[in-house]
Amino acid sequence: MGTTQLETVQEPKYWHLKTVLSEALDSDFAVGEILPNERELAARFGVARATLRQALEQLELEGRLQRRRGVGTTVAPPRVGVAVSTARNDWNEGAAGEAWQPVDCESASAPAAVAATLNVGAEEPLHIVRRIRTSHGQVVAAELLYVPSSSVPDLSGIDAPSGAARARNVVRELHRLGLDGQDRSVELGSARADDAKELDRLPGAPVLVVTTRYLAAGGTAAVSIATYRADTCRLTFGDSGDLEISHPAEERQAS
């Protein structure tokens, strides 16, 4: 990795440094290789460590780098393609190795915004299902699914009171409700501690937050908040309205 003079560059230093680092990743580093530490990189390019961090954060956001606990900053593998569609994936467990897997279920109150969307009391206990999404053997998303008791009236309180089996029962009963549709929104966010652990990211790492309202009988039957790795996934919308995650490397090969 060579050096460059940044003093005469008109664009922000961190942006030019990002470009230089990106070119070096293509020519000098292999996937999974660990980058030199921040002090060495900052000295090599003659920039402040704050400028270097801005460039590294941008490369992480673009999926070129990963910051891993106890490892450091490594060159990221290509993004994986994952379809995010209600009909195909939301309720299928283990289909083609790319579906949601139940982790746990608890009874607790929801955040105020979720409770308001569901039109339930702030202290009313809900079924809160935690699931993870895998693709190509890699965890790419963690989800909290908030389900009011009224949406799953036939759920047994005796069988499987907690854990993955309980989560599976809640999801099964919700699917049986006969949903009328869904709407989704997507925003950029930062990984919370619990999600970061599931996704093997550092807390505060950039993530894509997909919020879904499942509709039934003229109201909201459930709310899902799914956190996707921003370094792994890119979201696109098709003509059908389904939300998909595509792989930019595949687009480059196709062109």
In short:
This protein has eight helices and eleven strands. It is α+β, with helices and mostly antiparallel strands and 255 residues long.
Query: Approximately how much beta-strand content do the residues carry?
Result: 25-35%
- State the shape: elongated
Average residue-wise pLDDT: 79
- Give the beta-strand count: 11
Order of the strands making up the biggest sheet? 4-5-6-9-8-7
Q: What percent of residues adopt helix (DSSP H or I)?
A: 25-40%
Number of helices: 8
Distance between the termini: 29 Å
Biggest beta sheet summary: 6 strands, antiparallel
Structural class: alpha+beta
Q: How many whole angstroms does the radius of gyration measure?
A: 21 Å
Assembly context of the chains: single chain
Please provide the ordered H/E string of secondary-structure elements. HHHEEEHEHEEHEHEEEEH
Uncertain stretches: 245-255
Characterize the structure shown.
With 255 residues, the protein is an alpha+beta fold. The chain has helices spanning 13-28, 38-45, 49-61, 86-90, 112-118, 163-176, 193-199, 248-254, and strands spanning 65-68, 72-75, 82-84, 100-108, 126-135, 138-147, 181-190, 206-216, 219-229, 234-237, 243-246. A six-stranded antiparallel beta sheet has the order 4-5-6-9-8-7. A hairpin with a 3-residue loop joins strand 1 (65-68) and strand 2. Helix 2 crosses helix 3. The model is unreliable at 245-255 (pLDDT under 50).
